[in-house]
Amino acid sequence: MSKSRVPWKAVAGGSVGNMVEWYDWFVYSSFAVYFAASFFPEGDDTAKLLNTAAIFAVGFFMRPLGGWLLGRYADRKGRKAALTLTVTLMSASALLIAIAPTYESVGYAGALVLVVARLLQGLSVGGEYAASATYLTEATPPGRRGFASSFQYVSMTAGQLVGLGLQIVLQNTMSAETLASYGWRIPFVVGALGAAVVFYLRRNLLETEAYDEEQRASENARRGTIAELLAHKKEAVLVIALTMGGTVAYYTYTTYLTKYLSNSAGLAKETATLVSFCALFVFMCLQPLAGALSDRIGRRPLLITFGIGSMVGTVPLMTALGGVSGFGGGLVLSLTGLVIVTGYTSINAVVKAELFPTHVRALGVALPYAIANALFGGTAEYVALWFKDSGIESGFFWYVSGCAAVSLVVYLTMRETRDVALSRAEQAAEAAVAERV
Predict the structure, then answer these.
(1) Is the pLDDT of residue 55 over 90?
(2) Which domain holds residue 356?
(3) Is residue 3 part of a domain?
(4) The domain that contains 284 carries what CATH number?
(5) Is 217 within a domain?
(6) HEC states along the chain?
(7) What is the pLDDT of residue 106?
(8) Which pLDDT tens digit goes with each residue over 8-49?
(9) Count of domains in the chain?
């Protein structure tokens, strides 16, 4: 395969399922303002959002388990098999939310159904991230991996855009009362149907050459095991640390942003949704550009730029966003934050995959990343709402900056991963080139 050739079929196959996965994951958060009252008794609106945010966070705490089980599955049974399994779980969870009974009809049993669905989603996404990251990275030749793997966040953001776009359509075709009554169920039905389509598409994916090579070369019973991961514990800790700041910033400027603009800045829900939609569209388009840039200059410069920008810029940006009064100001400030976050999102998948050998790559990406997301990404929205409910909302801004500062130290001290060989074949090719030189 030519160094300059991008395997678009593999990129599309790995990404389209990721889009549906993250559509389902995101619509829970974006439609929470409508269904929060359906599953909890009457009370303070912020308290209801805290309850739904807590259930949102529950899904993140299943990610480590999903990362372990599905990461192990991907290392032992293949990337394709893991990708197919994760989208099946996501379809089931979306369907559960779509049919969940309300508090008025069954009391807290409806909220329990939400919890079960979020547990399934967390299990699925815990494995999806690593299977997708590993597949996209392994399926692409050296020199194009940053570009190709950036489509993971293109697809993730596309899923969010589809969710937001559907929300905009529903907001303009249904009354607020209808949305709160049953309209919020529609996006979850759409998600379940979309996942069924992706299941069919993923069954036709080809396995990566790196995995096939590893499978032929070794029947190592330790492949994809915790014991083998512990042999690479330095890399595992590195994944947790470099993820910490990025995941908090990402969820701050994506899933939490609409609520913040509506609940704190006082923008109409429709305006806040439109700001998020436009900002995320530009953000999506930036991912391949930044990924391609990392193929030329390396991964660390982009990560360092993100770390500095997030550490220094979060407090003034979020403070200014809290005072916006219209669409234009909200869009400019939101875009500024997302441009900074692009330094992390565009390449974080490939960086993590490049840290591990093939026989433990999926687990090595999945479990440490899932732990970091459970501790920092999944709790970001809840922490933000807790600070607001306590009357010290600005404390959350400093929390995000602090997380970015910790990750920045890692970015400054970690090794560059751009030129690492991911398979024995690549190692042999590099050795042959070195001999000729």
Answers:
(1) no
(2) 8-207+224-428
(3) no
(4) 1.20.1250.20
(5) no
(6) CCCCCCCHHHHHHHHHHHHHHHHHHHHHHHCHHHHHHHHCCCCCHHHHHHHHHHHHHHHHHCHHHHHHHHHHHHHHHCHHHHHHHHHHHHHHHHHHHHHCCCHHHHCCHHHHHHHHHHHHHHHHHHHHHHHHHHHHHHCCCCCCHHHHHCHHHHHHHHHHHHHHHHHHHHHHHCCHHHHHHCHHHHHHHHHHHHHHHHHHHHCCCCCCHHHHHHHHHCCCCCCCCHHHHHCCHHHHHHHHHHHHHHHHHHHHHCCCHHHHHHHCCCCCHHHHHHHHHHHHHHHHHHHHHHHHHHHHHCCHHHHHHHHHHHHHHHHHHHHHHCCCCCHHHHHHHHHHHHHHHHHHHCCHHHHHHCCCCHHHHHHHHHHHHHHHHHHHHHHHHHHHHHHHHCCCCHHHHHHHHHHHHHHHHHHHHCCCCCCCCCCHHHHHHHHHHHHHC
(7) 78
(8) 877 877 778 778 877 887 787 778 778 777 777 666 566 666
(9) 1
Q: Identity (one letter) of the amino acid at 16?
A: V
Residue 434 is assigned to a structural domain of this protein: no
Residue with tokens 């998020």: 276
User: Tens of pLDDT along 163-213?
Assistant: 878 888 888 899 888 888 888 899 999 998 888 888 887 888 888 888 888
Structure tokens at 58: 């529950």
Rg of the chain over Cα atoms, rounded to whole angstroms, equals 21
Q: Is residue 305 part of a domain?
A: yes
Instruction: Convert the pLDDT of each residue in 61-97 to its tens digit.
Output: 787 898 899 999 999 888 888 988 988 888 888 888 8
Mean pLDDT of the chain: 85
Closest by alpha carbon to 131, among 66, 70, 59?
A: 70
Return the structure tokens found at 90: 């996501």
List pLDDT tens digits, range 222-261: 777 888 899 999 999 999 999 999 999 998 988 788 888 8
Output the CA–CA distances (angstroms, integers) from residue 273 to 172, 317, 330, 382, in the order listed.
Answer: 12, 18, 11, 20
Find the Cα–Cα–Cα–Cα dihedral 243, 245, 251, 254, rounded to 10°: -110
Distance CA 82, CA 87 (A): 9
Q: CB atoms < 10 A from the CB of 296, how many?
A: 11
Task: Give the pair of three-digit tokens for residue 7.
Answer: 């395997």
Smallest CA-to-CA distance from 25 within 103, 86, 84 is with 86
Q: Report the largest interatomic distance among the alpha carbons of the chain, rounded to a whole angstrom.
A: 75
